[in-house]
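Action item from last week, closing it out:
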Amino acid sequence: MKSLTRSLCVLGLTVALSGCGVIYRPDVQQGSLLSKTIVDQLKPGMSKRQVTLLLGTPSVTSPFERDRWDYVSSIQRRGGKIKTKNLSLTFENDALAKIEGDYFPEDPAQLIKDAKKYRVEFPDEKRPDDKKKGGRG
């Protein structure tokens, strides 16, 4: 009788703890875990060897597109939604030609600042009335 009572108590305690989310769930990280500071060091014209030294080997390479490298990573924090990030690099004549992916800043002010480096103008920057009012300079 005591062993049955003890078993039922252990079973009830286990069910209660699992339902409350008290059981520890670790963060799960997979793939090429790249930081934004490392990705920012990529520059057009870098050789494949330089990119490999900086980022490591790519997660995905295609035998049909040898000039495209993909770095894929995912993270799941404490059993939550899985977030993935992709970085695609395209090479021409063994030199980095194009960088695409979602390792870029999400802050709108930072995006505009980065776009100005490449002389991209947005329609709201072309308004003549801003300069008269002394808004932006």
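Closing note: The chain has five helices and five strands.
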